[in-house]
Structure formats: C-alpha cells, structure tokens
Amino acid sequence: MEFKEFIDIAKVRQSCRNFDPERIVDEEVLDSLVDAMILSPSACNAQPYFYHIVTGDKAKKVRDTLTGMGMNSFVKNVNAFAVVTEENYNLTAKIGSSMKNQDFKSIDIGISVAYFTAEATTLGLGTCIMGWFDEDELKKIVDTKSRIRLVIAIGYPSDDDFIREKKRKTHTAISKFIK
Ligand SMILES: Cc1cc2nc3c(=O)[nH]c(=O)nc-3n(C[C@H](O)[C@H](O)[C@H](O)COP(=O)(O)O)c2cc1C
Asked: Which residue has the least CA distance to atom 11 on ligand 1?
C-alpha cells in the first residue's frame, strides 16, 4: 500500500484484533518504528518516555499481563510488544508543567504512540494500543520501576482483518471555528 497523504494513513490505521501468528516482525522493522516515534514532539523536547520492545519468550509473558476479565484476548497471536514507560521530565518541562498545572507527560506519551503506530501502518503492520494490563507483573518482565502507561501490540494483520469503517464523533460535535 502506498501513502501520499497523512489522511490515507489515518483512515486505515486501526486497532488490529486479528494478528497473523505466522509472521514475525523483524527487529530492523521494530527499530524503524522507534526511529519514527523519536521524531514526535514533546513539551520542552523532554521526551519523558521509554519504549521497551519485547519479543521472543518475554513477549509470551507480556501477553499474560494483558488479558483478564475478557480483555485483549486477541493478543494470543502477538509476538512483539512496545511497553511504554513514563520517565522524567527535563527541568523546563517540570517547571512548565507545574506552573501551568498541565500533565504534559501523558500528552507527550500519546503523541509518541501516535507516531509509532502511524509509521507501523505505513509499513503494513497492525497495532493495538492497550491501557489494560497488570502493571505490577509487567514491571517485573521489563525490569523497571517506572510507571507503565501503555502497551502496543505489533504484528502483521491476518488476511481476513479487513479495514473497518471508523465510528467517530461528527466534525461539528468535536470542532468549531471561533472568530
Ligand atoms: C489510550 C488507549 C488505550 C486503549 N486500551 C485498549 C485496550 O486495553 N484494549 C483494547 O482492545 N483496545 C484498547 N484501545 C483501542 C481503542 O479501543 C481504539 O483505538 C478505539 O476504539 C478506536 O478504534 P480504532 O483504533 O480501530 O480506530 C486503546 C486505545 C487508546 C488510545
């Protein structure tokens, strides 16, 4: 698939619920997603996050932390994950966030994940961003004391994973001009 406009990527980026268990994502490809993510903007350029790219046997352990109460059962076929931890601000971001009472870290993490998943889409990969996981167990697996904010499942979509129609708020419900 060839993309000429960002809107084309946005239209086909979707939460993949049907991963192909046979196709493993190469490490170079996973690296290239991180390279795209690094280009994302963040408050005071602090980039207050870290991407733990988990593959192999450790990925199997990650899967167990994502399921439970009927959630995320589709990850059974996923062999690669990005576990995104929240890290420190730099001094200016810390001061700015405190003075303006804004949680820039969450915003920065969200933007970085958007870049990561958009790049994955351009490469024909499927992703699913997940906020439901057993944080304590996951911390042990990736060996961190930092807060884990999101996990991204990464793989190739199955042939029968069709592009779904987007269900979204209408343009006027979500945006207006103020002149
Ligand atoms: C912060 C965040 C957390 C999410 N957590 C989960 C999750 O734990 N499990 C899941 O199946 N989908 C999760 N999703 C996916 C959303 O349900 C999905 O993005 C939304 O329904 C829009 O669908 P689309 O991604 O296919 O366009 C999450 C998405 C975001 C942005």
From this structure: 72
